[in-house]
């Protein structure tokens, strides 16, 4: 078997066997096949695509290239959730305790963020002493005892994906649906989930900015799940404007707590109820979606979801007093108001520009070495369809370092556009794919 022949076969639009894909990927990880040949293969895939079986084979080969986490020591059906990322995407911090309070074991491995704000692990570090580095035995024990644990990714998970993604990033082959889908799903499979709920974002603040492409990605990932025997479902959700009102690490944790208290942003609460209901269905914990959603709404209303978050914080050595005392969170030195430029209705709120404003303040990483300021970010006061008068406060910038303040203000001001006629709010969910 030769790499040349496999590249040529895919270039001509032919289907590759599992053995051929395995030869390429394993050879690349071992250093036996050079970058330039894998680059050529990735470009061939970009133009010729892969079918569901090929994509599933690639997913499993990448998942099996490193450690495979065995969650069988944890009782119950484990349902993982993955979001393709966005601005103000605080769902894990709400969903994890919410579905755990309904009896689904949440054994969540999350990453640090590279972008507008930190990832889930960065956000949890806003809670003093919170330990995201539990070893596997303690991770399993916490889930069995408390129903929930959220930790950082550890070990040697999917080295093939890490190596291939780094190559795709510099060879203009990132935007290939089969390669994106297999990258995401290989990490979920290696993480040991029995079932997978996917939140595929679309809009200016999302990786998949085009709705049609987002649908293709969602369908590809659900097809992978079906091919490899994992129950999988996907929601395609809006990220044309930020989800919720908070964009920034400590700010988002506070908003998650507010949501679990039955307050907070309506769109964030509704999306978490929808995704959580889907997770209950995948776990077989409800007869249908309506029943699942009613169960979760009751968990919000009776305080059990909030209690589960408090339990998780205590079990992972954090200070549970943050639930009721927000002064214990990192707090920025000053707040800067962004005012409405005219009367009217908010027509657009560009999520990407809001995210960039937060990153300029220090809420996110421009590269892997960047330090995050957990206190800073953007607090929105007005969103699409809201009526405003000139001079109203649209948003607050939470600021420590003023070095990029002028640029951040300009970005956030430009994120808003206005209409003189009433505007309809954007759809929150475009489609569910099962």
Automatic annotation (TrEMBL):
One of its GO terms (biological process) is pyrimidine nucleobase metabolic process. Gene3D superfamilies: Nucleoside phosphorylase/phosphoribosyltransferase catalytic domain (3.40.1030.10), Pyrimidine nucleoside phosphorylase-like, C-terminal domain (3.90.1170.30), Transferase, Pyrimidine Nucleoside Phosphorylase, Chain C (1.20.970.10). One of its GO terms (cellular component) is cytosol. It holds the Pfam family Glycos_transf_3. GO terms for molecular function: 1,4-alpha-oligoglucan phosphorylase activity; thymidine phosphorylase activity. The keyword Lyase does not apply. Coiled coil: none annotated. It is an enzyme of class 2 (transferase). Residues 345-419 form the Pyrimidine nucleoside phosphorylase C-terminal domain. Keywords: Glycosyltransferase, Transferase. It catalyses: thymidine + phosphate = 2-deoxy-alpha-D-ribose 1-phosphate + thymine; uridine + phosphate = alpha-D-ribose 1-phosphate + uracil; 2'-deoxyuridine + phosphate = 2-deoxy-alpha-D-ribose 1-phosphate + uracil. Its EC number is 2.4.2.2. Homodimer. Catalyzes phosphorolysis of the pyrimidine nucleosides uridine, thymidine and 2'-deoxyuridine with the formation of the corresponding pyrimidine base and ribose-1-phosphate. PANTHER family: THYMIDINE PHOSPHORYLASE. Belongs to the thymidine/pyrimidine-nucleoside phosphorylase family. This is Pyrimidine-nucleoside phosphorylase. It comes from Halanaerobium polyolivorans. The lineage of its organism: Bacteria, Bacillati, Bacillota, Clostridia, Halanaerobiales.
């Amino acid at each position: 078997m030769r790499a040349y022949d496999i590249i040529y076969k895919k270039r001509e639009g032919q289907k590759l066997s599992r053995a051929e894909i395995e030869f390429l990927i394993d050879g690349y990880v071992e250093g036996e096949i050079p970058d330039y040949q894998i680059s050529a293969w990735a470009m061939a895939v970009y133009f010729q695509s892969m079918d569901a079986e090929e994509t599933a084979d690639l997913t499993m080969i990448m998942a099996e290239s490193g450690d495979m986490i065995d969650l069988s020591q944890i009782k119950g059906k484990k349902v993982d959730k993955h979001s393709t990322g966005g601005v103000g995407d605080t769902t894990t911090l709400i969903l994890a305790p919410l579905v755990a309070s309904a009896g689904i074991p949440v054994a969540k491995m999350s990453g640090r963020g590279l972008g507008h704000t930190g990832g889930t692990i960065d956000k949890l570090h806003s809670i003093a002493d919170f330990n995201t580095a539990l070893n596997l035995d303690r991770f399993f024990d916490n889930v069995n005892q408390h129903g929930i644990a959220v930790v950082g990714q550890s070990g040697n998970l999917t080295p093939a994906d890490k190596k291939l993604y780094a190559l795709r990033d510099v060879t203009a082959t990132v935007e290939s649906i089969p390669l994106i889908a297999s990258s995401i799903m290989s990490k979920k499979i290696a993480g040991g989930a029995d079932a997978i709920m996917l939140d595929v974002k679309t809009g200016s603040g999302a990786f998949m900015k085009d709705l049609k492409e987002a649908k293709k990605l969602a369908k590809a990932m659900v097809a992978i799940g079906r091919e490899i025997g994992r129950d999988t479902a996907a929601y395609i959700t809006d990220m044309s404007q930020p989800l919720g009102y908070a964009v920034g690490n400590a700010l988002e944790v506070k908003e998650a707590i507010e949501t679990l208290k039955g307050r907070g942003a309506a769109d964030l609460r509704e999306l978490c109820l929808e995704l959580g209901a889907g997770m209950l269905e995948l776990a077989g914990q409800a007869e249908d979606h309506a029943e699942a959603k009613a169960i979760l709404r009751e968990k919000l209303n009776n305080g059990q979801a909030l209690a589960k978050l408090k339990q998780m914080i205590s079990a992972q050595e954090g200070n549970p007093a943050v639930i009721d005392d927000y002064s214990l969170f990192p707090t920025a030195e000053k707040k800067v108001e962004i005012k409405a430029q005219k009367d009217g209705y908010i027509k657009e709120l560009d999520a990407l520009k809001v995210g960039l404003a937060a990153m300029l303040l220090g809420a996110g990483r421009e590269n892997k070495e960047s330090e995050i300021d957990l206190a800073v970010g953007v607090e929105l006061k007005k969103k699409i369809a809201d009526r405003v008068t000139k001079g109203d406060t649209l948003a607050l910038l939470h600021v420590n370092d003023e070095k990029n303040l002028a640029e951040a203000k300009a970005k956030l001001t430009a994120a808003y556009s206005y209409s003189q006629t009433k505007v309809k709010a954007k759809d929150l969910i475009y489609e569910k794919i099962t």
